[in-house]
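Running log. JK asked me to keep both predictions on one page so they can be read side by side. First protein, sequence followed by its tokens:
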Amino acid sequence: MMNNNGNQVSNLSNALRQVNIGNRNSNTTTDQSNINFEFSTGVNNNNNNNSSSNNNNVQNNNSGRNGSQYNDNENNIKNTLEQHRQQQQAFSDMSHVEYSRITKFFQEQPLEGYTLFSHRSAPNGFKVAIVLSELGFHYNTIFLDFNLGEHRAPEFVSVNPNARVPALIDHGMDNLSIWESGAILLHLVNKYYKETGNPLLWSDDLADQSQINAWLFFQTSGHAPMIGQALHFRYFHSQKIASAVERYTDEVRRVYGVVEMALAERREALVMELDTENAAAYSAGTTPMSQSRFFDYPVWLVGDKLTIADLAFVPWNNVVDRIGINIKIEFPEVYKWTKHMMRRPAVIKALRGE
């Protein structure tokens, strides 16, 4: 659960289950393995309680309470401030200790390969891991502990000024740091293409590149954030606001409708092209296209092969059931598309955090 200050104790588990966990520790998050994580409450809540207590004390004093009560109030204020100071010091000491793991990494960075900063429940982090795995790049993942504030370590903030995951360091390019998942995916496929001459998960055609970019930006700006907000208002917001849950869930459905239509058009074109002996019957409507042997054949958003435009959706597609959307029933083409990608060995490896 979450309060107004971003503190929470949450206990969601199972495949890619937790998204958008608060303000202070905010990250779009979700997980592929069974995990439990608990966020401490205290400092911010105490600030509010202290403020309320202080206001009451001042009001009591102004309303003519006797000297004994005034002294009691003054002592309460002093005690409260001292407790607050101790808590701040404890948090500062904890942060200093926990940052040591991050500091040590930056002092001894690898000479080659990639380092991915992610979180055990971050779909955008798994998105990058999927592409790294598909391209066969050597990489290591550092799963940051938001509870311990590792995403606020100065060294990590120097990599990602937004202090969020994912972030990537390309050690082969003088420790180049890239942040924002879409930018990372584009860097990886372009680098692979430049080094190998093979546009794997990408395209050597400018028109196709523009379409891949369009779908990628659609996913990062319209798909993921809407799912994140739907999950936030359903599970983590301090108050139940039915209109907010409905608004974001409806928007997720609208987004999936866009993807469903695009994939359905690709499906129809593929069936008509490959199933020539039955094409006339499909066109006339006398035979359902679902009877074609190519009806479950994989189709992709751009061209006739898998690209980052497709893979970017995978981790988020795995969590929409948590907001009451059943893609198998409501969006059958999206379901088939996702199923084909989820069966890929590189995707399985990445989602397992290997």
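And the second, directly underneath as requested:
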Amino acid sequence: MPEILFGNLAREYQQIREAVDPVVARVLERGWFILGPEVEAFEQAFCQYVGSNYCVSAASGTEALALALMAYDIGSGDEVLTVSHTAVPTATAISMTGAKPVFVDIDTASCLMDVTQLEAVLTSRTRAIIPVHLYGQCVDMAQLLEIAHRHSIPVIEDCAQAHGAKYRSRKAGTMGQIGCFSFYPSKNLGAYGDGGALVTSDPELAQKLRMLRNYGQHRRYEHEIKGINSRLDDLQAAILHAKLEFLDMWNERRRQIASLYHEGLQDLPVITPQEKRDCYHVYHLYVLQSEERDDLQTFLAEQGVRTLIHYPIPVHLQKAYADLGYTRGAFPVTEGVADNILSLPMYPQLRDDEISQVIDEVRRFFS
């Protein structure tokens, strides 16, 4: 029986090579690779896609988050609220500025931030809130934005897994002051290398972000503020621009695959992901929960079905963040979810027969 990969970017390339190859050749022939016309064109197209006024590209999603925090002069002694159930780069970005990540627990069903816990950890040192739109679905932004507005705290959305996701018809990244995206190759919209972007409707923030990503320059060799080097190159920008036209189609296919998984697994002793009210889920990942997770993963691997865990160790229990002082039991929902979650194969080029095979093998495990 053929192996079913967790992801397959080679299959994606075969689908879109006629769109991608010419733009790669165009960049190589032009010979302009940094902050050139391809970057400008992609930034314009992406901000139009998400419904924002400005887009500032960056070298990665991690650095996009760090730049957003830097734009608010957040640093040592400051606190930034987010979740422990996320990819470590969310916390990495906070640490890059010298600020301290402060975590809140999540909701069991959605695996997203439990917004009702925010005010309990707000202090005079809280300088930003980073809601993580994990797995392709948005956090409850209405309640979060009300809390943030009441306390005059900026909201920086982590949209690394939410390209095209919506909350009450607004796309991820457009509800807070800044939205941050990753274009890591496996994302719903991925480059063929690292990349990231920030979107905002604030012209002053956009201008500051453009300087911060390029050594603090307003004009060449005129450095108005201290910045870093975090620039999306023209080759990746051209590839992303070409792939952008496929994003909605790919997201719809992800939703179709999720629907097939829902239907095929609904009567099993697992918790399947559900689309929340007011949300449009783009299923960057299809994450089920099972108390027999480890045995299930081992069984599926033996049958040639590749799965992953997103994420097995919460940030607050990572050795790198031991200095924060959290111990096991601090976030019981996060810790319980981390013990039970399993991500099934999910990418737009996954065939229906492969989806059926995954479902059959999961069912065989529980039979």
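Observation for JK regarding the second prediction: The chain has a mean pLDDT of 98.
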